Amino acid sequence: MKHHLQPLLNPRSVTIVGASAQTDSVGEWSLKNLLKGGYKGNIYPVNPRYKELQGIRCYESLSDLPEVPELVIFSVGDHRVEDLLEQAISLGIPAAVLISPLMLDKDKAPYLQERIKKKILDSGMLVCGANGMGFYNIRDNVWACGFESNRHKTPGKISLISHSGSGMSGILDCEERFRCNFAVSTGNELSVTMDQYLDYVLDLPETRAVGLFIETARNPIGFIKALEKAKKKRIPIVAIKVGRTDFSAKLAVSHSGAMAGNDATYDAIFDYYGVQRVRDMDELATVLILFAELQPVSQGSLVTMHDSGGERQLLIDLADEINVPLTKLDKKTITSLESVLDPELPAVNPLDAWSRGGEDSDHRMARCFSILMKDPNVAIGAFVVVRGPESKIYLSYIDYLKKAHSESEKPVLLVCARQGSGFDIKAITATHSGFPVVDGLSTFLTGIKALFSYRDFLERKTFLSERIDQSKVDHWKKKLARKDIISESQALNLLADFGIPIARNQLASTWETALKAAKDIGFPVVLKTTASGILHKSVVDGVILNISGEEELQESYDDMNSCLGSDVLVAEMVKKGVEMLLGVYQDLQFGPIVVMGLGGIHTEVIKDVCFLLPPFDQSHAFSSLKKLRFYAMLENSHDISSKNILKFCSIASIFSCMIDQLRDDILELDVNPLVLNKDGCVAVDSLLVGVGQKKILTNKDRSTN
Fold this sequence. Notes:
The structure is a single chain. With about 700 residues, this protein is an alpha/beta fold. The protein has five domains: about 1-130, NAD(P)-binding Rossmann-like Domain (Rossmann fold, 3-Layer(aba) Sandwich), CATH 3.40.50; about 150-295, Succinyl-CoA synthetase domains (Rossmann fold, 3-Layer(aba) Sandwich); about 295-460, Rossmann fold (3-Layer(aba) Sandwich), CATH 3.40.50.261; about 505-575, 2-Layer Sandwich (Dna Ligase, domain 1); about 580-705, D-amino Acid Aminotransferase, Chain A, domain 1, CATH 3.30.470.20. Helices cover about 40% and strands about 20% of the residues. The protein is built from 25 helices and 29 strands. A seven-stranded mixed beta sheet has the order 9-8-11-10-12-13-14, with helices on both faces. Strands 24, 25, 26, 27, 28 and 29 form a six-stranded antiparallel beta sheet that branches. Helix 5 (about 165-170) links the parallel strand 10 (about 160) and strand 11. The radius of gyration is 31 Å and the shape is flat. The model is unreliable at about 695-705 (pLDDT under 50).
C-alpha cells in the first residue's frame, strides 16, 4: 500500500524553483543533488534567467511546466517564498521542500512563518521544513537537498531523522561506515512531523535501525504511535534528545520554535519503548552502526582482547563507569587460554594477549580471541587495538574477528582506541561485511550497553493494567472532578481503595476525639494538621512525630490547635525504615508520568529517582529501581528485607495501574514517604491534586504553603 508521504519522499516528478548556475548556491546544489543521486523521474528547473541548466530545459514559471509535478523544491529567498507557494498550491502540487528559515527583517504579525504554515495546513500540502536541509531518499534516488554532499553510492540499513540540519549532515557526510537508506532534516515541521517520517522508514524493508535527533515531539500522539510501531517490528531506535538543561531548552525555542519538553518525560517514554538514548553524535553514529551491521546479541556479556595492559585497565574502569557487564570466564576457558598465553599473562577478561610478541603472536592472539568467544557466558566480543603508523589497520586484526565468529557464531567487532578509522577502506569493507570497526573506548562501550539494553527490552513482557474494580474508579473520577481541596486523609483513602497499604489514621477536631483516635490506633502516634490550604505541613510545624502517651498528646494537640486550628489527623507511628517515594505528574505533551525512588525530606536535593510511563509490572519496577544510585544502600539496609523490596515494587506496579485508570483525573499525586521496613511497605503521607482543582489551586497557594 502506498504511504501517504510518497508524493514528498518518492515523487514521480520534481520542480526546483530558483534553480541556478551560481556556484555553491542552494539553487545549484538542489539540481546537482537530484542528478548526483540518480533521480529517475522528470526534473523541471524553474528560473526565467536560464534557458537550460545542467543540460535540462529551464522554465520561466511554475505555470509553464508541461505537467503538475509531485514535489517542488523552493531554492529562493524568504521574500519570494509566499507568492511562489501560493502558485504551487493553486496548481495542485501536493508536496514541497522549504529550506529557508522564513524570516523577514521588517515583517509584521502574523509573521511570514505563521502565514506560510496556515496556507500549508489549509491546503493539505506535505512540506519538509522550513529551516531544514531537505532529505536524502538514497534507496529511491531522490536527493532533495540544497547543500553540498558526498556521493552516497550504496543505500544502507540505517534511517536518520533529525530536527537539526547538522545533526543529519554531520553524520551522513562524515564517513562511509555509516550508510543510510533514508535521511531527513525536518526543520520546523510546518506540515510533516518526525513521527510521520518515522512511520515511513519503519516500512522500508532494509531498515534495521533508526536514529533520531530530537528537539521535541511536536505531535505527541503520533510520536507514541510510531514508537509502538517500531516496538512491534523490533526495529531499534537510537536518539539524541537535546534540552536537558534550562539553557539548552531555551535555545531550542530560538532555533526552531520548539519547546523542548520535560526531559525526564522523554526518559520515561524511551524506557517504555526501548529507545536507546545517547549523548552525542559519535555515540549516535556508533550505536546505529552496531545495530545495523551486527547480528542481535544473545544472553551473556562482553569479552575484550587487547595488545596493551594499560589500555585493558582503562577499559575496565570505563566499563564500570558506563555499567557494561564484563564476562567472568569459566574454568574451561581459563584452562584453554593458559595453554596459549605467555606464562606471565593472566587468563582473565579483559585479556592482554600480547606480552612478548614474537613471530607467532598473530597465531596466538587469533587463538586466544576464538577461545574467549566460545565461553558460554559471552554474548559479544571485541578486539581493542591502537592503529599502526599513519593510522594503519592491519588486515590480521580483521582475520581474528572472522575466525572467532566462524567458530562461535557470535557477533564480534574491532575497536580502535582513538578516532580516525572512518575513511579507511579496510574499516569500511569490514564494517559492511558484518565485522564493524568503531572508534573510541567510551563510545564503543556505550554501543555495547545499548545492544544489551535493547536485547533485554525485547525480552520484557508486555504489561496491561490489572483489572481494577470499576466502581472504585468511577467513585474517584467523580471525587477528583470536584473543586474541593482533597485532604491527606482522602488521598490516603484513594491509595487504600486500590490496594496500597497505608498507615492507620483517624480524623479528629477536638482533644477528646484525638485521644480516642490515638487509643484506637495505639501509641506511639503522629499528629498532623489538616488545616485547609496547607500542602506541605512540615514547613509550618504541622507534623509532630512519635507521641508516646496521653500527656504528650494533649500538649502536642494544644500547641497545634493554638497555631493551626483544631482539625488534625492522628496516625500510627510507622517503624523506622527506608523512606521511599511514589509520585505522578501530568506532562503537557504525554500525560501522566510516574516518579519512583528515594523519598523523605531530602528527595528534591538528592534527586535519586526514575521516571516511568504507566502502567508497568513489578519486574520492570525492580529493574528500574536497581539502576538508582541508592539501591546498594537499600539492598544492604538492616531495616528491610529483600522480600519487602519486591513488595515495594509490587506496590509501585499497583500505583501505576491506578494512575493509568485515572490518567485524566489526577493532576499531581505525591506519596512521600512510603516507609519500607522489615514489616513491609506502608504509605505514610500523601498529597493529591485532582483535575477539578486546576483552576482554584493558584501559584500563590503552592509557593506559600
